[in-house]
Amino acid sequence: MAERKIRMGMIGGGPGSFIGAVHRMAANLDGEIELVSGCFSSDPAKSKKTGRELFLPALRVHSSYKDMIRIEKNLPELEKMDFVSIVTPNYLHFDPAKMALENGFHVLIDKPITMTVREAKQLKEVAEKNNRLICLTHTYSGYPMIKQARQMLAKELLGAIRKIIVEYPQGWLSTAIEETDNKQATWRTNPKKTGVAGAMGDIGTHAFHLAEYVSGLQVTKICADLNTVVKGRKLDDDGNVLLQFNNGANGVLIATQIAAGEDNNIRIRIYGEKGGMEWQQDDANSLQVKWLHKPMEIYKTGAAYLSLAAKHNTRIPPGHPEGYLEAFANHYRNFALTIKALTSHKKTKPEWLDFPSIDEGIRGMAFIENVVASAKTKEKWFQFKV
Amino acid sequence: MAERKIRMGMIGGGPGSFIGAVHRMAANLDGEIELVSGCFSSDPAKSKKTGRELFLPALRVHSSYKDMIRIEKNLPELEKMDFVSIVTPNYLHFDPAKMALENGFHVLIDKPITMTVREAKQLKEVAEKNNRLICLTHTYSGYPMIKQARQMLAKELLGAIRKIIVEYPQGWLSTAIEETDNKQATWRTNPKKTGVAGAMGDIGTHAFHLAEYVSGLQVTKICADLNTVVKGRKLDDDGNVLLQFNNGANGVLIATQIAAGEDNNIRIRIYGEKGGMEWQQDDANSLQVKWLHKPMEIYKTGAAYLSLAAKHNTRIPPGHPEGYLEAFANHYRNFALTIKALTSHKKTKPEWLDFPSIDEGIRGMAFIENVVASAKTKEKWFQFKV
Amino acid sequence: MAERKIRMGMIGGGPGSFIGAVHRMAANLDGEIELVSGCFSSDPAKSKKTGRELFLPALRVHSSYKDMIRIEKNLPELEKMDFVSIVTPNYLHFDPAKMALENGFHVLIDKPITMTVREAKQLKEVAEKNNRLICLTHTYSGYPMIKQARQMLAKELLGAIRKIIVEYPQGWLSTAIEETDNKQATWRTNPKKTGVAGAMGDIGTHAFHLAEYVSGLQVTKICADLNTVVKGRKLDDDGNVLLQFNNGANGVLIATQIAAGEDNNIRIRIYGEKGGMEWQQDDANSLQVKWLHKPMEIYKTGAAYLSLAAKHNTRIPPGHPEGYLEAFANHYRNFALTIKALTSHKKTKPEWLDFPSIDEGIRGMAFIENVVASAKTKEKWFQFKV
Amino acid sequence: MAERKIRMGMIGGGPGSFIGAVHRMAANLDGEIELVSGCFSSDPAKSKKTGRELFLPALRVHSSYKDMIRIEKNLPELEKMDFVSIVTPNYLHFDPAKMALENGFHVLIDKPITMTVREAKQLKEVAEKNNRLICLTHTYSGYPMIKQARQMLAKELLGAIRKIIVEYPQGWLSTAIEETDNKQATWRTNPKKTGVAGAMGDIGTHAFHLAEYVSGLQVTKICADLNTVVKGRKLDDDGNVLLQFNNGANGVLIATQIAAGEDNNIRIRIYGEKGGMEWQQDDANSLQVKWLHKPMEIYKTGAAYLSLAAKHNTRIPPGHPEGYLEAFANHYRNFALTIKALTSHKKTKPEWLDFPSIDEGIRGMAFIENVVASAKTKEKWFQFKV
């Protein structure tokens, strides 16, 4: 493959979108991906407006994703997009993703991947059939210190894992702001647009993914307490879940959007036989490693002593903080590099070139369905089914 | 009552004891309590040795608590002890406490108060009948910033409380050190000496007390997952508990002694309608107050803007850190001042002159019994019974 | 001006460069700047290699900056670059900058701006004569919480400023790594390439700029103690400087590259009559505001209560950490927007659209010259001359 | 010597005293020191009031320190005090200390030890002549993590020391509160009562002592900038001092009482060839050890891996924070144990049994005199003379 940028189309991300802009900055950062087309809104005026602001040629801006995919498909190999980035609300993930895959495009989707496990499994089939890749942007597994933790745990530096505590506290839904014109709140609290879970779908899935990604373990049983704290809201805005993992470890997952005063400090602690680890987004460039009989160590992003995966997902030297956009960009970069490798028929994949994909998407959807089911039963332990 | 020090006897706290020395330092700090007698061990040599080290006259040192109480009882009013401090392992709390109360002595006991709820209730009866006071040393409610939090929450500065997360992670029982000669580990993992719960009794009760004390709420339902992580151990060394409170708030309580690498960082977060609060022992002189629409505030021990209760339980100006012993000493001081007030027939009691007592002891024992029962059922929610 | 991206050329930033890649990421992030040409190295093979990696057309890649400027100048208005980004070692700043300005290009330069005050003043003249803009990438004034601090101080929320402590500790030059093949260390310790100061030029200038930017004050007198700690090194690698400001405030500036174990935690504290402020890069999204009689407040990036300047230099909501690259990108974005406004003959400039420019460059060079001169005298106070 | 408590008399510490109460709590904590007599005020009513509150027999309470020393001297060996604790304002240190030493009593004095170097040297002579001990309560060298740092540095674990930054920022004198009835402020800003320096005497001496104690080095040259920020004040309330040490290391000492918003966060950083250390009182139970090529380590009070000196100056297990009073009590305990050892003619002294004494007192007074002299000269470097 000639040296060229990987070409991206975008579905969603028009005026008022939060995550669309994040995706674009993440794609821009490394200069290896180029936005070439978009359907930013089903409202033609809005889509055009965003297209212009992004300096796209008018012919590459659409108000129907179907048109977009169809037109892109027929462009010459040297012009058409390589993958599509889907940043719409959840209920608008499955259809465009499926169509894109079927028409030969790789797909990047914001989480949660679909509205149901069934849809997610279907996407997997379609992707495999068409030999296309899927990337799911669970931001937090993109952080270099999370990569570091994963590699250290995989090497059993802490011995067998015994306990995992993961929490994702937000406070922005502490009042019924979905009744104002807050677009972000409105769709996220609407079951038709967001799915069967509220906080658990929006941020619980992030916490769940982080726990499984870091530990390399899988949840096998859960016991969920979901709450709708703000009156009149239709979905959970808060929840606490007890966990069991496939190696016998236990855990706790807390996800809430009514923790007034909290911003977005997702945090995980893992304890093994020999020590523990702690990471939180508010101090994202540090990984605390706590030992049973030695002083705690603080690993820092960019340091020479880090693992390969941490280093390759870092851009600047230690002491120059990287943040949320860089973590997000890691998924984009690793996805683009993998597309490139696929196109070049490279077979081996370096350890650090990972990104969440369809399997993580299926497990995320399973988390949503299982946690809602568990919350409804009177039984304590609910078998986690996929 | 003439100005004199309050006189204390001690049961337990001989060679190898950890908490006995803590109690003595706490009692010493303010110079208002005097150790006058003791039964530090049932082994006469050990009791004498400790007595000598503490500069006690030989006649006030005993190897039977029964002798000690009997002899003290018959001393002249101006010489005999006012209260007895019981710092033995749990199974040796009830009998000496009961006998001391019946013989006219006030009683201070380390937590958990007894082996069963039944015993705790009995102590309450005996104390009331004899018009004697009981102080239960739940250290963490002695911290000035916890007093501050309680007063702010009582004034509803955060609105109605919605969620409480309390955790007490320790790592010292990560391996089977009870099989070595570690005296502290040995009795704490022995059901005959410690009671029906391990970690939940030893530190879960602290977390439970802290949650109820700070919030002014009561737990009404629980869902417990207790684990014995280290093989061969007879009791729980780890557990996660979902909570419901009497105002509808939900919560999570985590207490573990196998979180390798953790020392003793008990931590609580409370969220209300308007904001949240966070306190942790590792930064004990700070109280984080997080607001929904304003910058987070950090309240500091000793500051002029604090509540009465915080100020009266502080000894030095802001920026001079106070710690665990000072928190412990607050209970001793408030208990001694209350004994003095009782003796002087004072009737009103200032708001700040509080300490955990028999009612907190009963609830703590109920926590232990309920959490063990809940852990055994397959039902999710277990009604908290006292 | 039609909606299009601002076009950038780059001088420097070839293989082995650290800061070149940083500049490109900063320019990429917001998708408003396009790299269109470059002279990445005077070695043609290296320049070409970098050009290819950056997907540039071969005809826009040069190995002489003179060729590059000449050729770009003659391109049609719709193709040629708008500004040139100069990311070479210090001794290669002045000539290309001067030539670019004279040929009608705006110029962005990494700090310190030149080798001498004289050169910097000359650049100012040339820029004014040609009506071109200069941007100097003092990263740290690009952080949103620094913008916030500046606005709060300008409004005198802390009263008159009394004391400023600014420090920039690094440890990477703790040993003589310039004697290995460390390219970064080699030129930075070579007076011919870096100028008359070592640590003071490389990072002291950042600290100096930060102090003046945040406070709105100017240094008037200094007392410098410069040290060469690692034997054989030709320039200072460490220094402590006492400061006096034009309003009577005093201060301390510490810049060192031999603080073994430190990464890059630039930190500033400003004290006024009513309170103090503290910011450090390791916790870049927080601004501590300490009050004389109230609890300390923590302002957080992205919050709704922040100043206009802080908000406009932020991309994502509170709790999503932004870091070094985002701060860097703020200068690029504000520079690009100002170029755009200039082209559109807009006259008013919003408060938040600021970036360090030639005047800051002159003061930075003056700092270097004054600090070196002060270090040589036996007199305590040295009048700061520009 | 029979097992008995060490007996203390106190001079100063009457109503309104801050430090008197601190001394008494520090002496009380370990139960090894007994307050037996006092002259708490030269006002008989006040002295009596305090004596009663401290439960002292009336005959042991005086309103003249001369009477007190005379009377104590003539008491039987088994009753009289062993040492006197002098907690008066600075100008009332020398006379009672001298008289106490001459009459056979050991002496503990709050810092700074006297009003002049001359007086301090005289005390040394008197103490030596009478074979009596002096303890000077520089609180901060009593912290266990400071002991740990000292031992690690003495073993050259960081290699040769290159740089020391010590700072002591307070804000309580940000306004002219000495013009109100604030007793603490009034004497501390009055040259007749406090000596030739203000902030430098009150807290600068602490910082100076800490730097020399931790590093084992001595200051040889200084360059001082002292300021009187609050109008009308007679002494310095703020200052910055450049330092040179006897091994060639450089340093900075900052002491200020007008850093509005700061409480009492004394902090020290030491850099050697291989790494750095950082300790601050706000996080007193942690010692940060930063390595050039390894992750930073956090040493914690009470941990098993600590040095002997750290362990012996700690009372409780890791995770149970100790604070200012415990650090203070360490000096008292070590002083009392040394008195005991002296009485028992023990000759070897364990490494951990240290406390600041007369030599540290002389250097502290020299610091005050040198820093004031340096501030007055126009020369940069001032030779530190003792």
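qc> Chain C touches chain D through 42 residues (CB under 8 Å).
qc> done
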